[in-house]
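Input record, target 12 of the design panel.
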């Protein structure tokens, strides 16, 4: 980012530490295949995921019960944790990276509230409100390609602060 081009690494990391305290969680969430729902997410101030067989996640308070229901609907628990994480672990203040495949980041924002189920949407009814701070797509830096290499395996993935810093470094 040109705004930070003259900053030293120490100054930049201090800025990040102030902006994103150590308790902040970082998540990668794909807004549909090839970020096809990104514009809706950006304009609506949310991030959303599919799993149409699963209805409102607020009805589940126990992971074991949810796992049983997920297995019943899907035949396995392969992505069960992703859905649970999206609805139960994304908290106000969490940072969301909306990815477009493995090659670019469509947007970055901060979770502003709790999970909700929007039955008025035609698809991708599981939503979390987000205030988007960066809305212009940019490529994943070459130095961070190892981080995105496994993103095709899932929709929702927690990432570390260090991975986040690599992803936004634009080196």
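The sequence produced for target 12 reads:
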């Amino acid at each position: 980012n040109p705004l930070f081009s003259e900053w030293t690494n120490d100054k930049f990391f201090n800025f990040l530490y102030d902006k994103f305290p150590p308790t902040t969680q970082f998540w990668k969430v794909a807004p549909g295949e090839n970020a096809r729902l990104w514009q809706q997410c950006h304009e609506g101030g949310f991030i959303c995921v599919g799993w149409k067989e699963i209805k409102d996640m607020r009805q589940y308070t126990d992971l074991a019960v949810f796992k049983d229901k997920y297995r019943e609907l899907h035949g396995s628990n392969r992505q069960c944790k992703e859905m649970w994480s999206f609805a139960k672990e994304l908290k106000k203040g969490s940072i969301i990276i909306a990815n477009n495949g493995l090659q670019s980041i469509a947007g970055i924002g901060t979770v502003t509230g709790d999970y909700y189920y929007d039955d008025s949407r035609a698809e991708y009814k599981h939503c979390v409100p987000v205030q988007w701070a960066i809305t212009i797509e940019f490529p994943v830096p070459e130095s961070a390609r190892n981080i995105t290499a496994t993103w095709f395996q899932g929709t929702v993935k927690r990432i570390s602060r260090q991975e986040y810093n690599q992803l936004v470094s634009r080196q």
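The longest strand covers residues 126-134.
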